[in-house]
Amino acid sequence: MKKICILIISFLTFNSFAQVCTTETNNTSTPITSTAPGIVTISISEDVTITDINMCLDITHQYLSDLGIVLTSPSNTAVSIILPNECNGTNIDAVFDDDGTPLNCDVTINGVTQATQSLSAFNGESAMGDWTLSVADTVVIDDGVINSFCIEYCGNILNAQDYIDTTPFTIFPNPTKDKLSFITQEDIIVTLFDLYGRKVMTSQIGPNASDLDLSEMSSGNYIVEILSVENKR
Fold it and tell me: What is the pTM of this model?
């Protein structure tokens, strides 16, 4: 009696990761006074695990030595951008990046520069939530203003063309004699191999119930590989 046995080796899915960076900005003009720190927040809705983060900052203030600037994450991790009495320059218009040049604040802070503490302290945290920039003025007399503040955060996400397929499928009967039936919710490509790894048959199966004609095949054991058509594109 003819008998065909099927070994299902895979329903292949592919996932690869790309580092994607997103920038969120708050352009609200916020005063900095000795009686009340300037506080600006940025709310991030994406639950992305941070692999890199940078901050841009535009501040007008005559004496940076008066200022202590801290960025605090939603997880309550605080990083000092500059410390009081650390800088002798005037104004900030810069991007703070761990890959920037060492901080030189004897003049206006500009370009791409490192902060006093490393922003990598935020790596591994979720970006989602409220990020708080706090600018404290420790000396009475000279006030200032936060003109703008932005956060660029980077994290790994699935590539747009890749996904993990969890669509169920059914194959029956097994063993079989002359046909193999498939129930699937999407187009799939079915390939049969003999036990020597030689391709015997390839067919595309559509959604719902479909049959694969095995009437011309010899009795024996075969291996079935199943690929999502979407992932083959």
Answer: 0.62
